[in-house]
Design goal:
The chain has 2 helices and 6 strands; from the N terminus they run βββαβαββ. α1 packs parallel to α2. The chain starts with 5 loop residues before the first strand and ends with a strand. β2 and β3 form a beta hairpin. The protein is globular, with a radius of gyration of 14 Å. It is 23% helix and 26% strand. The chain is α+β, with helices and mostly antiparallel strands. The chain has a 6-stranded mixed beta sheet with strand order 1-2-3-6-4-5, covered by helices on one side.
């Protein structure tokens, strides 16, 4: 049942998994992250502020996870964004672009959906698939 090609990724620089899941899984040359919400890794609480602050924290958490896996956000292939309110799309997108689609970079493929509710009543959750360099 345990696949020897698959390994869990964990870092104290992102919120710890609080259930039966890994922060990320490496399989071959790919890294699949779990969705991250705007939890401060040290306090375990949602960061104060709105969508800009929460999106920034989410992406910092994801950056820490992919770094622990041996890659970086520049190697992101695909993202899925879950928004509590699609009216927050433009503000989320502005922060997202700084981390995942800076000028001159190939932006990852992305899906964005509005959802009824997120863990801890977060405003945004993002997951990524990244390749190893």
């Amino acid at each position: 049942m345990n696949d020897p090609r698959k390994s869990a990724v964990a870092t104290p620089d992102a919120p710890a998994a609080i259930g039966p899941y890994s922060q990320a899984v490496r399989l071959g040359n790919l890294v699949y992250t779990s969705g991250q919400v705007a939890l401060d890794p040290s306090s375990g609480q949602i960061v104060p502020g709105g969508i800009v602050e929460q999106t920034t924290r989410v992406l910092e958490n994801l950056k820490a996870v992919v770094t622990a896996a041996g890659t970086d956000l520049a190697h992101t292939i695909k993202t899925v964004v879950f928004l509590k309110d699609m009216n927050d799309f433009a503000a989320m997108n502005a922060v997202y672009a700084k981390y995942l689609a800076p000028e001159g970079a190939v932006a990852p493929a992305r899906s964005t959906v509005e959802v009824a509710r997120l863990p801890k009543d977060a405003l945004v959750e993002i997951e990524v698939i990244a390749s190893l360099p």
